[in-house]
Write a structure and sequence with these properties.
Layout (H helix, E strand, L loop, with lengths): L18 H9 L10 H4 L4 E6 L5 E8 L2 H20 L9 E9 L7 E7 L5 E8 L2 H13 L6 E4 L2 E5 L4 E2 H7 L8 H18 L9 E7 L4 E7 L23 H10 L2 H21 L1 H11 L7 H15 L10 H17 L1
Antiparallel strand pairs: 1-2, 2-3, 3-4, 4-5, 5-7, 6-7, 8-9, 9-10
Helix pairs in contact: 4-9, 6-7, 6-8, 8-11
């Protein structure tokens, strides 16, 4: 497994949700009328920095709202949580309260992180409210359709609400858990290979260790691992093919090193093939939804012409397949990725 560092642009614009995408979201129950918008949460008067447990700046801030706005905000946020978790059934928030509202100025969507707590047992949950970015929404949809993971989110015009994805951040796992003697290193390496393959097929970029989490599931005879993306800002925007291959980020080197130590060329190719077969199965079961998503995204401008030209040249060289040079959009590249998987799996 090859590894080197790669840099990406930090100036990706926010792409608005078009009427065609809004119609798609309504068809697949992703649209919701929300009582509180992203812009409402921006109406704080001042904020204070939030430090992590080591006393370092966490890059999150604690916004301070006017006293007469707090109750309205909290009630609206509880309704949003009910919409996200229970199709609007307010009984699930009957004994819950909003404990924290936190704001992050790092990244493209400047999210708010909301902590909601059950006052009966102190069990808490998080959800996020962000600027609605069309490319991010396409990333969430691709994750829902082509990955083994389900994603839960809602959109109301310029506001995006996302469910919290639980797991150990990839950088924390690499530092503190990767070499746990109770964990089978081959299983971890296998999962990283599959994740790497999935990102390239879906053109999900910037999967550095802090943009994914590791989920650990004890099984009856071993421990299973699943890598899940948690950041979809860089969905098919960049032109550098290495952006879509997690193996090329220096932050992921511990996983790459483990793969080089644990896997042979034969097993590496085997795990790639397993993931392609899984993707093919999901394509067949969700073909109508995938077609609808393709038809919408293919009509939108979600990157630059230069990035499309650069990526189709790079991916044509990577796969030794000149068909990619005929692609006109990022969506065309993903569609050709899927068609090639169908041909390969059938062989």
């Amino acid at each position: 497994m090859e590894q080197s560092d790669v840099r990406i642009s930090r100036k990706k614009p926010i792409f608005p949700v078009s009427p065609a995408l809004q119609k798609y979201l309504k068809t697949y129950q992703r649209e919701s009328k929300l009582p509180i918008t992203y812009n409402d949460l921006l109406m704080f008067t001042e904020s204070y920095p939030i430090m992590d447990k080591y006393g370092k700046d966490s890059l999150w801030e604690g916004p301070i709202y006017a006293a007469d706005k707090i109750e309205e905000l909290h009630n609206g946020l509880k309704i949003i949580y009910a919409n996200l978790k229970a199709s609007g059934n307010l009984r699930i928030v009957q004994h819950k309260y909003i404990d924290k509202i936190e704001y992050c100025t790092f990244g493209n969507t400047h999210p708010f992180r909301i902590r909601i707590v059950n006052r009966l047992n102190d069990v808490y949950d998080y959800f996020y409210i962000k600027k609605a970015d069309a490319s991010r929404i396409y990333g969430l949809e691709m994750e829902e359709i082509l990955s083994p993971n389900q994603v839960n989110y809602l959109v109301d015009r310029e506001t995006l609400v996302e469910e919290h994805i639980a797991g150990i951040p990839g950088d924390v796992f690499a530092k503190n858990y990767l070499h746990n003697p109770e964990y089978n290193p081959t299983r971890i390496a296998k999962e990283f290979v599959k994740f790497n393959e999935r990102c390239l097929v879906m053109l999900l970029g910037d999967m550095r260790a802090y943009n994914f989490v590791m989920q650990i599931t004890p099984d009856f005879d071993d421990i299973q691992f699943r890598i899940r993306a948690i950041d979809f800002d860089q969905q098919f925007y960049e032109g550098n093919i290495k952006v879509y291959l997690p193996q090329f980020f220096k932050e992921n080197f511990p996983y790459v090193k483990m793969g080089m130590e644990q896997l042979t060329d034969k097993t590496y190719l085997q795990y790639q093939q397993e993931e392609k077969s899984s993707i093919l199965h999901r394509v067949r079961s969700e073909r109508h939804r995938l077609t609808d998503l393709r038809d919408v995204s293919n009509t939108e401008i979600l990157t630059t012409a230069e990035n499309i030209e650069m990526l189709k040249s790079g991916i044509a060289e990577y796969f030794s397949d000149r068909q990619y040079l005929e692609c006109k959009t990022m969506t065309d590249i993903i569609e050709l990725n899927i068609k090639n998987i169908i041909r390969q799996v059938k062989l």
